[in-house]
Specification:
By secondary structure, the chain is α+β, with helices and mostly antiparallel strands. The protein has nine helices and twelve strands. 42% of the residues are buried.
């Protein structure tokens, strides 16, 4: 059979944790979580090229970010994991246009990985969700969320999902670009464990019921230890509240902090002012999504501008 090439595109949305409650450390080294995650309209663009019937490697390129190229990228690791599960060795090429800040607590790498799994599921007509879920967990605890329908409470390591209803929220994200403020997720959890051993941050039992979202629920158990070590993050959150945010907290293991604003206009005003005031930060206005984006076939940009394409697209 001749090789068949299929090129698919997908949007990989960022996420924020509106709630992040962390249980005690488990024997396997992970922590039980109870977190409310929502996808955002801030997203990376993913292009996946599959050549079915032609053996080859998994490649991954991130134009403009060579340090993210190669097999260590979570997107490449996801493709490799699914190839193993499906028992195939077809060539797969992944290209990522990065728009989500890296190592920011916004789930960009996990979302890229999930989008690749979505694209490959379409390419190989994978029907068993368990196959995708298994590959996702091999890559990271946040990846299953991005394979879900949309906003969700996540428990366990983050793989047990319960759909949640969250109204559209207008956010301002503030990401400090200083490498000294980067926070590894493992460090954030270790800092929390240390604080709890000292009695500074007592552990609370996780709830088995998932409340309907309201700003009063906003919480991040990792925030205290991270703010203690990086006071500028606490200042950034305080500034967002001072500019009209209903609440401002850190997302995931940080260092991005975000504020929830009454409407898009207020968020844009605050973002413009924040960006002018600080050159060492990256500011984004974002809105929460009700569903994760889908996967579509890639079309050449030229196809939509040529006279023949325009003519053929007219209704008859």
């Amino acid at each position: 059979m001749s090789p068949v090439e299929l090129v698919l595109r997908a949007r990989a949305p960022a996420k924020v944790n509106l709630v992040l409650r962390v249980g005690p450390r488990r024997p396997d080294g992970y922590h039980d979580l109870e977190t409310l995650m929502v996808p955002l309209d801030l997203a990376d663009e993913i292009l996946v090229r599959v050549v079915r019937g032609r053996r080859g490697p998994v490649t991954c390129r991130v134009p403009g970010r060579p340090e993210l190229d190669g097999p260590g990228n979570l997107a490449a690791r996801a493709a490799e994991a699914l190839r193993r599960h499906l028992g195939v060795a077809d060539r797969i090429d992944v290209t990522i246009e990065k728009r989500i800040p890296v190592t920011a607590g916004l789930g960009g790498g996990s979302s890229d990985a999930a989008s690749v799994l979505r694209a490959l599921a379409r390419a190989y007509e994978v029907r068993k969700l368990s196959t995708l879920a298994s590959a996702a967990l091999e890559v990271g605890s946040d990846v299953p969320f991005f394979l879900g329908q949309g906003p969700a409470w996540a428990t366990g390591r983050g793989e047990l999902l319960t759909p949640a209803r969250v109204p559209a929220l207008d956010l301002v994200l503030v990401y400090p670009k200083d490498p000294a403020l980067a926070i590894r997720a493992g460090d954030a959890y270790q800092w929390l464990d240390a604080a709890r051993r000292k009695g500074v941050a007592p552990a609370e039992a996780l709830s088995s019921s998932h409340e309907e979202w309201s700003p009063s629920l906003a919480r991040n158990d990792l925030q205290g230890p991270c703010f203690e070590r990086h006071p500028t993050l606490e200042t950034a959150a305080g500034d967002l509240v001072g500019q009209g945010a209903t609440v401002a907290i850190m997302s995931g293991s940080g260092p991005t902090v975000f504020g929830i604003f009454p409407d898009r206009a207020a968020a844009r005003r605050t973002a413009a002012g924040a960006q002018e005031a600080g050159s060492g930060i990256e500011v984004h206005v974002a809105r929460t999504l009700q569903r994760h984006p889908g996967v579509s076939r890639w079309k050449s940009p030229k196809s939509g501008s040529s006279p023949s394409a325009k003519k053929s697209s007219r209704r008859t």
